[in-house]
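Dear colleague,

Thank you for sharing your sequence with our group. We've completed the structure prediction you requested, and as agreed, I am returning the results in plain text so they can be pasted directly into your records. Please verify that the sequence below matches your submission; if there's any discrepancy, let me know and we will rerun it promptly.
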Amino acid sequence: MYRAIDSFPRWRSYFYFITLIFFLAWLVKNVFIAVIIETFAEIRVQFQQMWGSRSSTTSTATTQMFHEDAAGGWQLVAVDMNKPQGRAPACLQKMMRSSIFHMFILSMVAVDVIVAASNYYKGETFKRQHDEFYLAEVAFTVLFDLEALLKIWCLGFTGYISSSLHKFELLLVIGTTLHIYPDLYHSQFTYFQVLRVVRLIKISPALEDFVYKIFGPGKKLGSLVVFTASLLIVMSAISLQMFCFVEELDRFTTFPRAFMSMFQILTQEGWVDVMDQTLNAVGHMWAPVVAIYFILYHLFATLILLSLFVAVILDNLELDEDLKKLKQLKQSEANADTKEKLPLRLRIFEKFPNRPQMVKISKLPSDFTVPKIRESFMKQFIDRQQQDTSCLLRRLPSASSSSCDHSKRSAIEENKYIDQKLRKSVFSIRARNLLEKETAINKILRACTRQRMLSGSFEGQPAKERSILSVQHHIRQERRSLRHGSNSQRISRGKSLETLTQDHSNTVRYRNAQREDSEIKMIQEKKEQAEMKRKVQEEELRENHPYFDKPLFIVGREHRFRNFCRVVVRARFNASKTDPVTGAVKNTKYHQLYDLLGLVTYLDWVMIIVTICSCISMMFESPFRRVMRAPTLQIAEYVFVIFMSIELNLKIMADGLFFTPTAVIRDFGGVMDIFIYLVSLIFLCWMPQNVPAKSGAQLLMILRCLRPLRIFKLVPQMRKVVRELFSGFKEIFLVSILLLTLMLVFASFGVQLFAGKLAKCNDPHIISREDCHGIFRINVSVSKNLNLKLRPGEKKPGFWVPRVWANPRNFNFDNVGNAMLALFEVLSLKGWVEVRDVIIHRVGPIHGIYIHVFVFLGCMIGLTLFVGVVIANFNENKGTALLTVDQRRWEDLKSRLKIAQPLHLPPRPDNDGFRAKMYDITQHPFFKRTIAVLVLAQSVLLSVKWDVEDPVTVPLATMSVVFTFIFVLEVTMKIIAMSPAGFWQSRRNRYDLLVTSLGVIWVILHFALLNAYTYMMGACVIVFRFFSICGKHVTLKMLLLTVVVSMYKSFFIIVGMFLLLLCYAFAGVVLFGTVKYGENINRHANFSSAGKAITVLFRIVTGEDWNKIMHDCMVQPPFCTPDNSTYWRTDCGNYAGALMYFCSFYVIIAYIMLNLLVAIIVENFSLFYSTEEDQLLSYNDLRHFQIIWNMVDDKREGVIPTFRVKFLLRLLRGRLEVDLDKDKLLFKHMCYEMERLHNGGDVTFHDVLSMLSYRSVDIRKSLQLEELLAREQLEYTIEEEVAKQTIRMWLKKCLKRIRAKQQQSCSIIHSLRESQQQELSRFLNPPSIETTQPSEDMNTNNQDNAQPETSSQQQLLSPTLSDRGGYRQDSTDGGKPQRKFGQWRLPSAPKPISHSVSSVNLRFGGRTTMKSVVCKMNPMSDAASCGSEVKKWWTRQLTVESDESGEDLLDI
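Please find the predicted structure tokens below.
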């Protein structure tokens, strides 16, 4: 990058390399970790039998065995392995088992570790046999030998070695006993001495449990270590055979050298040097093959092998599936078990006596003396009076319409909530009165549903695969029927034993689920009670202590000034616009911008802008342009302090400082705000002109650099990032302890083996220390253009320097502190090759094993622990750590559905014209594949450099122009096929149009100018075109979505990392702004300004030679010029400051913040990476829903009315299909859910998709506890409401039928009365009766005579065929009256043989009468017999009506 800065414009180099590192090193590279983690989770089941199931931490000293009890049964009995089995006296056995003995031994181990860590190099002449450290080691070895002998005496040898911990202690005892032998002291046996520190893990149970989680299941991690070692051995042997014959290449001459070279490539440190040396040695012919060999090995080792370690550690940290729900319940109980007491800063008021505020009642007769009454007591009556007045105003119709008083209208609006609560309470009372009836109805409905489902009412239909919606609906109905029904209803006598057993298991399972629900509800009630108790305590303090909730004990609780400050402090932009009628939230066009504006309050927005401006002003500061001497920079300082003073005063007056419920100083953020303000105020008032190095003034300037951290407090998402960092501090702290323990072990070993042995004379010709004295000449390489005059005999210019016997510049092992610093640098994989080469060259090749073992343990296991712990903590904070597989799939589905959007593809034109043909061509797979191949072909053109002077560039550019015209043709065809409006709907089409437009502009500029800039623009257009291919393949689209969504979700983490980097950059300018140039501090990399400091820190984030920059900033006299007056006049560094500065920055950024990016990528990758079996809703299901949505949403607005949801549900097919014949009830539930949740308004694409997703999963398995309760309550409410609607509609139909029958009955009765009156009148005045055989002409005349009569004048008992209720022909029994569709008929009487006639017509004025019929049937009958016959017939008709109504009810 530095070379590119010297050769090209600075902005181009920065932009290219920073984006390259961000996308490739931080995003794309971490995708491999996500892939390995997900793949490892899939194949873990296959290896579960080999590795064994996960288990919790158990004591290795106890076991279980079967023991026969007194009843003859067997039971598991815990057997204590520490039970005395030896021959020691009882007192010694009791002492050995006591905690005092245990703590004494651990304290001795700690003292031994401290003594070993205090060892240092004392010179060559010191005798080690008389060293106090040697004598202490002998004493500790004897002590631990006696401990081992005592345990063997008490437990017996067999009982002693049965514990793995005792085996490890015995191994240490044997090794340290051999180590104190003088000839073996400070040899390889030193490992046994320093490994005693591992025993200190038993001090902390949390650390012991964490270590067991990681290393307890040793089969997985051990298998991976063996695999890595085998891979190294195999690849080393292959490389040895390939390159051992190459001359001038010494890296592969022997197997150890080949092994070290391949291990170096594995750690990524200097692997390019290994490859370059090999390429130069093998020649140009085989160079490409060798390069591919090393690159493939490097990619496999770094991207796959190291990711496997992260996957194994994450798998070890994960719990079993059956324990996760138990943990969820325990966690919910722990969250519910909140503190009932108020914070200590509020409970301090309880120490003071109660002094409630009293009032005196005036305007009373003087005859009675009324004492003072509590103000809170009187306020109840005042509030009640105001409520009554407002209720009276609300009841009056003219109060809100005719009155123009704004205060009355506001009072009415304020009391709406009270009125709603009153109505709700009345409704709840009525609901409780009807509870038994509703329960009975619901029980009947569930029983009917259960009976229909089990009766096989769908047997006659063809076999068809049921949709997931239908399956889940029937599962829920069965579950509810089992839960609410009784055993007698569910189990019949005819069932088999298997069915009974299955029903019993289902009953037990659902009872357990019901018990779990009750526990969750109890936890929620407990949490609500705790919150209520806290509120009660707060109200009591508010009532009994007048100074409670008073800012600064001065401003009143309801003072106007405090209310004004509250309004100013809490004012914010209202992002959600609701409909005043329905109350639904309106979807605005720029809702994302509105959400951003409503993110914080207006006051916080002002302070964010002021803080950013202040940080920009601080970036112009430098040691040569200080704020003390620059008035323009002081303006920004004054503005920041003034605005922050106003902000803090407003917040303190509104919420209080400390002793109020919503005080400013109630958490760490408030303390940080006050601290930053005080530092800025002190610095502004002081403005020191002279700032000595390492003084209080310089410390004040360093603390002033924390100002960008204010944004963490002002932005809620930034506070969330901080909480995510600090919430996992415990696990990160444990990992740090493990790494420090590992470093201490190797540092102590290094001090005892390498102390004083790494020093060397600076004259390469001197070997011994005795000869390293005097001076020698060092030659200097300079440019030949200088034309320097050399002395006779000199070949190069140079100068004379004194000989010095010294350690390497950057590291040594003379004491534990320097050794741990060197190992910390090695732990970051920076500079370890140099340490290895120095140790091998100056101590011996065998000691190279030391550094290789440390690198493997520290980097392969230790650093991956950071990655695993940060990912695990991130999942725990997100709530996904304790999720089961089904719950995690559900969370992934919800996140995936949020990303899903309606298809932006217009429908095919209806006709078969030119547009339709174009549509078919552009949507054909062959057309899409052809375009993808052309994009790749155009991208291949960039494999050759485009240079203006190169003749090959012109043909390449011409070919690119041809490709551009082809893409223009593609866009034109799509615009014709889809219409311009339809083409513009898709974002991909917009991107293609943009790139194509840029390509056309490039073609015009290319033929017009033909210079280097046009060639560069053409290359950029080709690169932009290449990215369009990512959305045309499923896998590439998945990876691209992972990167894009990760960038979106990690925005605040990246911003937080930049703010930390900015703070360190400001502090670096103050500490190291004037440090002299060294090995890595140069004109490009330095801290002279904030901009250059940011560049250096960004380089440190990547880990590139950060340790060398740190050592350059540690320069001390006599290698620099000190100045005690001001720090900007010296070129010396700060040793302690550089150590804390660089180490803390590298740990926070490289080990924690960057691993958060890995966690986000792993989380987002799981959204898109899943097989069809793992997905609750597959991509095909989502695609089908998108197509159906486009059919319903014809206007492409993204919303549809609620009544269109039923049409959308009917159009769904496949797994989302709703069969109305089988699942009509489910269809009603889904439609009503949309109406209920959206109040009959418009529904969006995601609303319907969310409803389908809830209906397509088993909520018992997929939803978490709180969400499960809410969803079940919603579905239960929907089920009840749908049942009520069904019953209501059924009752309406029944009532409608009854009314119709009543009306028809009334008309019949009226006709009967009319006929009776006529018959009586005829009976009193008998007419002439004629019996005739009717002819066709007579029937025609009768019909013609009957037509002119109106329906109101007809007095007919039985309607004719021309009427609405014509006769119905009898088909069966003639004696039973029948009715269909409101048609009535009389029973057909048996015909006498003596009166056999074909037809009888009784006519009187063209009307058929009842009397004539009866008389013809029985000529001797009279009026009484006629009336009795009609009465019997009417009774039979009423019986028929009741029977048929009952049948209709059963049918419904």
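Summary note from our side: The chain is about 65% helix and 5% strand.

Kind regards,
the structure core
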